[in-house]
Amino acid sequence: TPKDIDYVEEIKRLKKEKNAVILAHYYQEPAIQDIADFVGDSLQLSYKAAEVDADLIVFAGVHFMAETAKILNPKKKVILPDFNAGCSLAESCEAKDLKALKDKHPDHIVITYVNTSAEVKAISDICCTSSNAKKIVDSVPLDQPIIFAPDKNLGAWIQKETGREMLLWDGACIVHEAFSIDKLLNTYKEHPTAKIIAHPESEDHILKTAEYIGSTSGLINYAKNSPAKEFIVATEAGILHEMQKEVPDKKLIPAPSHEDNTCACSECPYMKMNTMKKLYLCMEHEMPEVNVPEEIQKKALIPIQRMLEISA
Ligand code: 13P
Ligand code: SF4
């Protein structure tokens, strides 16, 4: 019966049989991270996806990540455990609406966070992730106006960091917008020697309390290299798995969310749609598969490649 299936063993078997490689984001559940061939942040996963030589790329993350892998490596079959694993940022920005904004501001170039659909990337000039957004914006000549989409929190932080005014899209991540400043300050009172570290998708009042702001891999590295013994971590709670492996002797406290938030304890409901069972099933049946029409794939590749070149 399906109940008796040893998913770890079955996934390992399928990996070999199908010459598959499993790429997983830090927000995936621990068992998925443990069985993946590579775990990383969105930028690292893009570099990895581009160089995969295996026949099958299994992307344990959300849809836009699997789609980016397909755009970068279009000859490979790319599958993901749950086709409905979306992202509130990607959903906030439809290509037709971005196109309308571009038409209103024809002198602006468009920088989009990778958390977008292939159609949106296809009408963008450069992509970015949270680990290279500063560098990407700094690479644009000072007199060149910029539309930055879709994350307004990341955008506002980049504006502060670079001193550049940008036209910001009004999107946000439901997980990072759910952190409660009051609860965070209470947690800090209970752990006064802890360092608060936060992902730049968080709101400004959270970022103001943070000792360090960075991407998921940036946060892990900071916890590793800082002499502090306790950290309050404001990002999706899945990251604590890898972080704790890196700093086994340090105390990691997830930043608290509002009680009435839809995502219990800072978990991304999209990322958490993926389970070991669905990972096994998608590998067994090689579906759902991500496909991108060739015309869109070619156009979307340009801003992604620009990003990879600038941040190399
Ligand atoms: P990074 O891994 O690039 O920090 O992205 C975080 C995120 O929200 C992905 O959905
Ligand atoms: Fe999107 Fe936020 Fe989930 Fe990342 S954590 S996939 S940005 S909703």
TrEMBL record:
Enzyme class: transferase
Xref: PANTHER family: QUINOLINATE SYNTHASE, CHLOROPLASTIC, QUINOLINATE SYNTHETASE A
EC number: 2.5.1.72
The species this protein was found in: Namhaeicola litoreus
Needed co-factor(s): [4Fe-4S] cluster
Entry coiled-coil feature ranges: none
Binding site for [4Fe-4S] cluster: 87, 173, 268
InterPro entries: NadA, NadA_sf, Quinolinate_synth_type2
Protein name as catalogued: Quinolinate synthase
GO MF term set: transferase activity
Cofactor binding notes: Binds 1 [4Fe-4S] cluster per subunit.
The gene coding this protein: nadA
NCBIfam families per record: nadA, PRK09375.1-2, PRK09375.1-4
Binding residue positions for iminosuccinate: 25, 42, 113-115, 130, 199-201, 216
KW Transmembrane helix (keyword) present: no
